[in-house]
Protein: Protein-disulfide isomerase
Organism: Marinobacter mobilis
Amino acid sequence: MGEAKRRKGSGTPAAGKSKSSRLPVVVVMLAVVAAIVAGVFWVTQPPEPEAVSLPVAAANAQPFPAELDQYGTSIGADDAPVVVREFADFQCPACGRFAEASSRLKQEYVESGKVRFVFYDLPLNQHRNALPAAMAARCAGDQEGYWAMHDRLFANQGEWSNSGVAVEIFTRYAGELGLEERRFSRCMATDLHQEVIEASVDVAKRMRVTSTPTVLVDNIPLSRPGWGQLSAVVERELAAAAE
């Protein structure tokens, strides 16, 4: 008896044609997708403030010398219970990514008086436009435009990082931000803030900071600079300050 006749007589379905035989495959695929979604959700969630994985201060770590903050650029209440300090290079891609977190920090914690934020310039030698960018931010600061220029530089990092006319681009930014371009250009041309930028670099050397971005919450260095860890450590330190 042929196979077709045998199946017809016995009622046995043809191999590979049963819907039930495909069902386990569908179930497995759905389970895999669900696992991937759950994994992504878990990875992207900020850690809880009490999580044991959060960084802590090194053993016998001393408080950050607050008098050094004069060489950085600060925003926020002088008596804020927590201080976040960032050592950064405007041309550093990782610093550009952290800029979103620092912007959110200013909105959610600095404006409410809970945190003071201090930005230290640490232009790296391998980035030819990092020092002019630091100068541009400082020159904008002479016209109350430091943080606007800070944000513009990071947001448009790809435009000027490898440009041979970076200073011209910075001057255009100054005009777009409503600053007086002639005053800004004069500041840039005379290297007006060279000494204070060098002093900021000296602070980094004193604190043994060698990479960017290096972010400290009080005297606690973040191991994964980003909003998740930053916000969790800030919350933990705020809670400790309130006790």
